[in-house]
Amino acid sequence: MIVYPASAEKATCPVAGCGCAQRAPRYPSDMTDAEWEVLGPQARAVMAELRHGPGGRPMAHRLRVVVDAIRYLVRYGVEWRALPADFPPWQAVYAFFERWAARGLPQRVVDRLRGQLRVGAGRAETPTAAVIDSQSVKAADTVGAATSGFDGGKKIKGRKRHVAVDSNGWLLAVLVTAANVQDRDAGHRLVALLRERFSTITLVWADGGYAGRLVAWAATVLALTVTIVKRTDQVSGFVVLPRRWVVERSFGWLNRHRRLVRDYERRPEHHEAMLLWATTMIMTRQLVHQRSGEPPRPRWGAERSMPPAQKDPQAA
To answer: How far apart are CA 73 and CA 78, in angstroms?
Structure first.
């Protein structure tokens, strides 16, 4: 098993009782060396951009180990206090998570990774179209009543996350509200955020929940065309809807992370950060596969080899 490289003078962590400098990856959520080669430079570059002033005390814990700790929590949905002992103390990991979320580090890292993915796929670095949708999730007892509500349509009490993705399903913007907020009301804030962050976007696809005044407001105020993709009720069974399937697939990617199946965060902006950290995990793996040219690994282990077909003697 590959051990994180550490120089002789930094063989142990300066924090008493922490051995993160000598930690070896042992969980499926831990980054491989190839993934860290993709994510590490981007994280360090964003941290340099967000640094206030020329100085500041350097990190006592190793950056890769702290990121692995956050990935472990997002992937498996444990409590902060339940982080394994081979990670830095949970108080330190949470402090980094909270500080990075407040400064916008996860969003900046996602933007950098998305640009690389789009260029590698033969597209422009900045998108020109987006797909928006929402998803209601149940809230745990740690979520206060002031930031949660009841979604009458889905019969869910909790919060609602509104996302915008590009045509490949990679996250562009995220907004977390109470579940009782209507899609068209939160849509105003979402498309305004989308226009603020991406001046190149001219077209947005959405479902019928965003129809109405949002379409006229976006065209008049933001010079943004919102196209409603209506559901086809004439065909029985499952039907893949044009453009809308992209954002539904993105929700499927995100729901593989147990911390996102239910909302445990006391503050909505922390749930947004959890969504962004999960997105970095997805994008990092996709970038590694894109650069190596190898197909993604099957989710449920290695594919089975089928036995050769035997000819039926009675078929003749």
So the answer is: 6
